[in-house]
User: Fold these one by one.
Assistant:
Number 1:
Amino acid sequence: MNRRAVLKKLIVTPLMLPSLSLFSQERSGLPSHHGENGFINTDPEFAEAGFNEMAPWLAGKLGDIFYSTPKFDIPREVNDGSIFKEKKTYTITWIGQSTALIQMEGSNFLTDPVWSSKAGPFKFAGSPRISEPGLAIEKLPPLDFVLISHNHYDHLDEYSIEYIADHHPNVKFFVPLRVRDWFEERGIQNVEELDWWEGASFNNLKILCTPAQHFSGRWINDRNQSLWCSWTVLGKKRLFFAGDSGYCSHFKNIGKKFGPFDLAMIPIGAYDPRKLMKPVHMDPAEAVQTFLDVRGKKMLAIHWGTFILTDEPMDEPPKKLLSVVEEQKLLKEDFLALKLGETREW
Ligand code: ZN
Ligand code: ZN
């Protein structure tokens, strides 16, 4: 829960209860990822990096956050949006980071839309964007819905959400638990909030909030007060969006319940230093394992080539992905690391 939401609760709650005690009162009988002081990761293997290890690394990143405006040549394809006028049943377009436009059985939807040039709480401070979005936000076709995996700035972007809500009047936002407040504070009402394993229908599609292993927070006082998730979209074909996640046992479960998936969108970047990142960000080898666990048929690599978040070179993740695919003698054409703006049918 962010600072404004906490203030709002304090003002409107007659008993002036602090928000954390509201959270604990609602807990009884809830699933194991609802912890005492926020949401928690439930995989027995999960072990978060300690503050003593994390703090010096974060301090070293401050230069990037305040001063850096680098550019980097990530391959791109010109996309002026005209391709979306012709309705195709199944397409995917990579726009950058975890933002993709999907056409599926008559619906147009986005995952984690981020068009801003910094991922952070202020315009002057945040992880810098090194590559322009693959499609201008003005060129989006009419949107039906948007899936949000969690509230980190490289996944939930105020500018993009407000633009989309203003220009796509019927768009619906699907969000994990306790992210709806953020939308309501901005006057956006068409939001459905779901817990892990809960589902909703949208036209002919079934949309399910599924687990992931990660964390949340936009400010210093709201760590893990809102949930993180992956999304499963079931129609005649099946799509899986892993969100932001470390490698974990949830994926086998999801594969068992809802797979095989015709397309699985899986993060491959933000993995170094490995010791600190492993609990919350998978590397390319783990992304391939996730793809196998969910029983994917094709994989789109996401969460790379866009924001400087961690230490690996910006163009390294797809190279590592390719070498893992070759090592494991998997079919190269099933693993898509698209150019920015590139559209494929699936
Ligand atoms: Zn994240
Ligand atoms: Zn991320």
Number 2:
Amino acid sequence: MERTTFVQHIRQQEKSNPGATGEFTTLMNEIIVASKIISLEVNSAGIGENVLGLTGKINVQGEEVQKLDEFSDITFTTIIGKSEAVCAITSEEKEDPYIIPSEDNPGKYIFMMDPLDGSSNIDVNVNIGTIFSIYRKKSEGDEVTDEDLRQKGDEQVAAGYIVYGSSTILVYTAGQGVYGFTLDPSLGEFFLSHPDLKIPEQGSTYSANEGNWGIWEENQKNLVSFLKEDNPSSGRPYKLRYIGSLVADFHRTLLKGGLFMYPKDKNSPKGKLRFSFEAAPLALIVENAGGKASTGKQRILDITPKGIHDRLPLFIGSKKDVEMAESHLSATEKKGGWFKWLSG
Ligand code: P6P
């Protein structure tokens, strides 16, 4: 069977885009290089040099920084920073953006990333991942402005993630479909494994941290109770699947369908997940795969963040499931409201 490498795929995509200058292709290829390095490190973590464990540092999110977090952040920043395709890099691990110095020939794109999401799972061998988002610099002149770094989700040029697990898989979209590539470690090449990914219109699982039940709002509790009701004619109860690593939970939802939720709660009144590094890139992917992504009220891609570290609630997955969640949340928010869903 003929196998398409990532490089062949991105070159084909470039040919179908008459205005392409090759800068996007360069950027994507550098992302591939960085992801291979991280994959090697993640899959050999603990063997030889001690990259497991904590650095003793706390990041801008107030989270303990794991050694692989820091390694991933430095690797992507160094490689993408030298690509001559980007003028700025923002990272979940860094308070401030990294502006590419003129001597490194900055390019027209802005790269945003969660370099290693789910890092609390590193030491227990659970899948973790990198999430990235690419915007075009919009302002005139060489200076990178605040508006360049806080663009509406719909302005993304491309978005993707790499999940480091039993195999390393890169999934991305540039607005013309969603494609998945699996790393063949023996060759060090990513081969097309998921051409034109589409998420099922409705799933049968929900993904949420029910340990937060006691700090959820009432309408969130009502929604999850609804999903757990024994009502086979409407496809309920849904099964619960929650890994606690967003990239792994999202990848399963994308492939199998269903609903991933990280709602706001008393401890995270704006939500826990970040707009720039998590919600917006995954929303671009899921919409290009036929799914939906919202805060429970507002479409993620309609949002322009006020800050590069903004957090928000996230409901993402199959179109019907996200719509069910939105209507249930708004109905039950109106105290005792009712709604019909899956009434057939
Ligand atoms: P909780 C990991 O720390 C992360 O940012 C996401 O990968 C994951 O979805 C979420 O937090 C898990 O949060 O509160 O359930 O541990």
